[in-house]
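Retry 2 of 3 after timeout on previous attempt. Resubmitting structure tokens to design endpoint.
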């Protein structure tokens, strides 16, 4: 959840790729609904990408291919506030069988033909099968895979080694095209397609991730405490920056605020 200081930052995040492509994107996996739209619209972002919508809503949107929509979250701002919005077809994690964390059981690509478990053809077929499953619930021929999850990439090589192999052999197969990409490139490809997107004008709340598991208390429980946390988070950031400056001259100068770093988000959750 985004913890604000005293006010929104009015600067627009600009991400530059190879000094050629500049886009404004807003991938927020743990923020929720109108809060997401409000921040993104005020900061001038072009697209939203997130995972958390109600499990029943997600199932319906998979059926009618409306996980991706144009979201107009306010009648006041009208058409100027419309943002391309991408709700992931599952959690913000890799498809089943393609999680390459060290403690995961996904089958690695074994591309040495001398190995007894050489499996390039099988893993390419697995990749294409997973891609087609998602393509069947998505408009256009572009799909996004979010490769990772919470607390992962502790050993990034285990991920990139396997992804490099998959991209190479899948493209060599030729049935689909795989590449490393970004949310902004993905949004550009979607917007360039000749597709009429559904318009969404209401919120994604209420949110449940399973039967009888609603998250409505995420905001409404302990409102005074959460308001207090948000007001004081601005003071905390100022103190934190001062302590970082002091650490140049004093050993462990930032220790005073270190223990508070995770307390605010923890209390809000």
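Retry 2 succeeded. Sequence:
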């Amino acid at each position: 959840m985004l913890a604000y200081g005293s006010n929104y930052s009015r600067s627009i995040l600009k991400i530059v790729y190879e000094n050629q492509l500049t886009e404004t994107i807003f991938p927020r996996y743990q923020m929720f609904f109108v809060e997401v739209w409000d921040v993104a619209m005020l900061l001038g972002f072009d697209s939203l990408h997130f995972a958390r919508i109600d499990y029943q809503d997600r199932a319906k949107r998979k059926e009618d291919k409306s996980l991706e929509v144009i979201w107009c979250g306010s009648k006041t701002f009208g058409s100027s506030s419309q943002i391309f919005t991408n709700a992931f077809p599952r959690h913000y994690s890799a498809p089943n069988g393609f999680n390459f964390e060290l403690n995961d059981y996904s089958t690695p690509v074994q591309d040495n033909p001398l190995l007894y478990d050489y499996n390039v053809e099988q893993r390419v077929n697995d990749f294409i099968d997973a891609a087609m499953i998602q393509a069947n619930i998505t408009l256009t021929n572009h799909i996004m895979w979010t490769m990772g999850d919470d607390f992962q990439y502790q050993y990034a090589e285990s991920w990139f080694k396997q992804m490099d192999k998959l991209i190479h052999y899948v493209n060599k197969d030729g049935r689909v095209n795989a590449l490393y990409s970004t949310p902004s490139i993905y949004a550009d490809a979607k917007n360039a397609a000749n597709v009429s997107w559904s318009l969404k004008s209401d919120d994604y709340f209420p949110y449940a991730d399973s039967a009888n598991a609603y998250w409505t208390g995420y905001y409404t429980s302990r409102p005074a405490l959460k308001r207090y946390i948000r007001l004081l988070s601005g003071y905390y950031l100022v103190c934190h920056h001062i302590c970082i400056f002091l650490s140049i001259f004093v050993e462990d100068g930032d220790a005073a605020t270190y223990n508070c770093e995770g307390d605010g988000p923890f209390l809000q959750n």
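Attempt log closed. Residues 223-246 form the longest helix (24 residues).
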